[in-house]
Amino acid sequence: MITAIVLIRAATDRIPETAQAIADIDGVAEVYSCAGDVDLVAVVRVGDHEALADLVPGAIGRVEGVLDTDTHIAFRSYSRRDTEAAFAIGDD
């Protein structure tokens, strides 16, 4: 499974509609509106690089209101919850 973070610049007057349209695309796990250099952040989970190559320009990039995308592929996931769960094994 490949996880990618897609940073999206969107037309300001279409952010809610654009975000929902992206969230409805298969392979998109979550979409966040945010402040800063980008308007939306999408978390994408797909089976292989080919699916990612199809999804970002072929689906996300074609959503009305999307002006630009910048895709970052994740190598590993780190979170406090995962670390705590790993050290809790056998505590029953």
List the helices and strands and how they pair.
Elements: E1 2-10, H1 15-23, E2 28-33, E3 40-46, H2 49-58, E4 66-73, H3 80-87
Quick structural summary:
The chain is α+β, with helices and mostly antiparallel strands. It has helices spanning 15-23, 49-58, 80-87; strands spanning 2-10, 28-33, 40-46, 66-73.
Structure description:
It comes from Actinokineospora soli. Pfam families: AsnC_trans_reg. Residues 6-76 form the Transcription regulator AsnC/Lrp ligand binding domain. This is Lrp/AsnC family transcriptional regulator. By secondary structure, the chain is of the alpha+beta class. The protein has a single domain (2-87), classed as Alpha-Beta Plaits (2-Layer Sandwich). The chain has 3 helices and 4 strands. It has helices at residues 15-23, 49-58, 80-87; strands at 2-10, 28-33, 40-46, 66-73. The two termini are 31 Å apart. The model has no long low-confidence stretch (mean pLDDT 92).
